[in-house]
Amino acid sequence: MNGGSENATPAQPDWEQWLKQHAPKFLLFARQQSRFEDDAQDLVQEAVVECWRRQANGAPPAAGLVFATIRRRAIDLGRSHDRRTGREALAAGEIPTDWFDSSVEDRERNRLMQHAISSLPDIYRDIITLKVWGELTFAEIGQALQIPANTAASRYRYGLAELRKLAGHIFP
Amino acid sequence: MSDNEQDKFQTELRRIKPAVPPETLTARLRTEKPPAKASWMEVSRSGTRPPQLLWWLRWLIPATAAVVVAAAIWRGGSPSTSRPPIPAASSEINAALDSPALRADDVQIGQELVSSFDAVARLPGGEPVRFQFQQWMDEVILSDTSQGLVVESRSPRFEVVPVGFETY
């Protein structure tokens, strides 16, 4: 998972700095993988702690490993949830959480982008999120999603073109 | 979409920053920080182990074992050799126990996840089942600081955990 990218584990463990740098993108990915905000936060916490405890030298884990763990746990969580519960929650008017920073002047643009990304098929959305905001290489994305790196690269290209169409009114 | 357009669009997307996690999650993560573990590399560097000694130990341990086994066979197979009386043997054992070759005053046990991957298979009945594979490297380090000895043992371990698929 290290893959020689900018996500290689730092030599000096610094929990606070590492959290500040990576927690927003982990949560973004987890929110896309789960239906409920509480589940997304639990996914991040469990994945981070699980990956960190597996590190033999106590250094923070590679980001790709945490993304892969979030996805694996989200799949297990989705299976354990009753589908009816999800439909009822959606029917009850669940308020969507902002995926992107809403404190800046481009709040409306970010919400439109969230809507465009959530409209993408899962196979494109996951790869775009991991590449653009997770800053993983295609090799790392392939490992996280258990697909060949070339497949990740081609899906990214198709997904980006699809998102460009959906977000045409945001980025004319 | 050309490569140039793709790069430009990617740059535009990266300007949108993911939302900052709520303070409750950050606080939870802060409290979950695992305790720092000693790095295996640091342990190896901090040891007072001369490289030559380790090289000799590699030969000395099996050679000693071979000599002991040969001596035991020779003494047991020789009819003219009278066995020493039991009290004498006990004193030899006690003497050996009093001066062990290695008296470990520091023991480090660790495990490192080498790889992890999932695979999906089907049971004879057609039900899908997911297997989670994890390859671990177990390591034990014994240190005798009085003699400056460090003995390391590493062994791979493979775990396979079947995870059933729920059917709806």
Overall 3D geometry of chain A? globular
Counting DSSP H or I runs of 4 or more residues, the number of helices of chain A is: 8
Q: CA-to-CA gap between the ends of chain A?
A: 36 Å
Note the run of SSEs of chain B as H and E: HHHHHEEE
Overall pLDDT of chain B: 72
State the total count of DSSP E strands of chain A. Answer: 0
Q: Please estimate the helix content of chain A.
A: 55-70%
Structural class label of chain A: mainly alpha
Strand order of the largest sheet of chain B: 1-2-3
Write a compact overview of the structure shown.
The complex is a heterodimer of chains A (172) and B (168). Chain A is mainly alpha-helical and 172 residues long.
Describe this structure in words.
The complex is a heterodimer of chains A (172) and B (168). Chain A has 172 residues and is an all-alpha fold. Helices cover 66% and strands 0% of the residues of chain A. Chain A has 8 helices and no strands. Chain A has helices at residues 15-33, 37-54, 63-80, 83-91, 107-118, 122-133, 138-145, 149-166. Chain B is α+β, with helices and mostly antiparallel strands and 168 residues long. Chain B is elongated, with a radius of gyration of 29 Å. Chain B starts with a helix and ends with a strand.
Which descriptors would you attach to this protein?
heterodimer, A: 172 residues, mainly alpha, 8 helices, 0% strand, globular, disordered N terminus, B: 168 residues, alpha+beta, three-stranded antiparallel sheet, 5 helices
Helices and strands, with pairings:
The complex is a heterodimer of chains A (172) and B (168).
Chain A: H1 15-33, H2 37-54, H3 63-80, H4 83-91, H5 107-118, H6 122-133, H7 138-145, H8 149-166
Helix pairs in contact in A: 1-2, 1-3, 1-6, 2-3, 3-7, 6-8, 7-8
Chain B: H1 3-15, H2 23-31, H3 40-46, H4 51-77, H5 86-98, E1 106-122, E2 128-144, E3 149-164
Antiparallel strand pairs in B: 1-2, 2-3
